[in-house]
Amino acid sequence: LMGMLGVGAQYGIVMPYSRTQEAEADRLGLELMAKSGFNPAESITLWRNMSAAGGAQPPEFLSTHPSHTTRINGLSAILPNAQQLQQTARQQGKRPNCTP
Fold it and tell me: Which of 25, 53, 82, 99 is within CB 3.0–4.6 Å of 40 for a Cys-Cys bond?
C-alpha cells in the first residue's frame, strides 16, 4: 500500500510540479534572451530541432519534462510579449553579435 502511495505521489504531484518548473524556466529564458536583444523566436526553432533530432520520448505524464510539442506551444503563446521585449532592448541599443 505504501509503495502504491509513493508511486501515486510521484506521478500525481512530483512530475507535474517538475513540468511546471520547466515551463517557468522556458518563460524566464525567453524573456532574458529577448531583453538582451536576441531573437526569441529562435527558442522555438531550437525545440523544433530537438524534436526532429530526438528519439522516442516517454508519455508526458511519465516525464519530469514537458514534451517538445508542449514546449513549442507554450513558447509560441508567449512569443508576442517576448518580441516586444526584444524590440525595446533593440531600441536601447542591445544588439548581440555572436559569431561561431
Answer: 82
